[in-house]
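Hi team,

Below is the intake form for Ketose-bisphosphate aldolase from Alicyclobacillus fodiniaquatilis. Please confirm the fields before the structure is written into the shared record.

FORM ID: S-0412
PROTEIN: Ketose-bisphosphate aldolase
ORGANISM: Alicyclobacillus fodiniaquatilis
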Amino acid sequence: MMQRPDNLYTLKEALSVAERGKYAIGSFSPRYTPMIRPVLAASQQNNSPAIVQISQKELERYHIEPAEFGEVFFRELRDLQITVPITLHLDHTKDIRVIEAAIAAGFTSVMIDASEHDLAENIRITREVARFAHEQGVSVEAELGKIGTTDFVETDTDEEMYTDPNEAEQFVRETKVDALAVSVGTAHGVYQVRQPKVDYERLQAIRARTDVHLVLHGGSGVPAEMVKAAIQLPGGGVSKVNIATDLEVALLAALGRADRMTNAECKNLAEDQLVAGRNAVAEVVAEKMNVFLGSAGKAGTFGAAK
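The structure came back. Fields below:
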């Protein structure tokens, strides 16, 4: 296993610091390997911790292997001389082989999503992945309930089922996961008809029953005040917020495109287009860190977090 750079953290390490500091860390999905650079650059420029992530469905849709994503990530981390705390995370994944490939590629966190199964089977699958990943020194996120979607990039269905606080207590106790993605009203993708909402009472009930780090998926398009309220709940709220769609929307707008590309197409963009796209992505990342997450300027809160 490769030696981790000093500023590369597991999800558990990073979220422990964020939760104590009452802010959240953005989990940004660049979706294209050339867009890893602006996420890292914006993190450094804003002195903010960050999580760089990609899901199994994104890997498939954009034609990327975990090894390639990891290789570009580590190269950019070195070439840009990034010193702020960073986590490399595999988002929604159902296939253990993809999880194994990501861990081999140096990912410090993985998400097993067995939420389509009943509680007992979700617990069984998640517990096995957690045991395997923890042996490799890698953190594990899981999902309980079902988080809806509008674009099917990260998940297969738009079915939604809110997380049951009592089930969350049992799930975390039996699986020993490090972070839990909860379904409390947000959805993946662009909000077109329905409007985002956050069930704060449900979040507080989950927090009252478990001290696991809570994750808000579907952070793109959610009003800043909603996100901030979810982060700053008494007793500890959300400490990780996933942001993917907003980055791709900004990238495509900067390129004057309506349709998404493959990763190969993105790599073959003209230099001026790459620069324009990267600037647009970096701008969104900086805005999230400053306006939504409260993570800007917080890199120094890590100290000796490991």
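SUMMARY LINE: Residues 149-155, 188-194 have pLDDT under 50 and may be disordered.

Thanks, M.
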